[in-house]
Amino acid sequence: MNATATGSAPFTRRTLLRTAFTAAVLAGTAAALGPLLRARRPRPATAPGRELVPVLEETYRGRHIAVDAAGVRIDGRPLHVMRRADGSYLSGVNHFESFATPLELARAAVDEIGTARLAAAASHHG
To answer: Residue 91 in contact with residue 122, Cβ under 8 Å?
Structure first.
């Protein structure tokens, strides 16, 4: 009895290659879409690499400084803060000096900018 009498196609080299190609396309699509789908999931509050920063507020030299998980703000305006590999922080106001904590960094930024105000929106590196 041949394969066509039972209603199934014979298992040929062409069928094997088509099955292998389809499996490869599906695996490639899953590999490409996986990171995109994972990125859409809500992240836990303590995602790796982003430790939870307690809310700190103070008035320093007449300026209101707020440091929290969203970042550092001076008088309600965001200060661009970068974390260095050694754990220290530096800001867009002074790229040449690093500080142990975001609060120290904000105080130094207030010292540096004097009576000037920060820009309304934080700049983004492209």
So the answer is: no
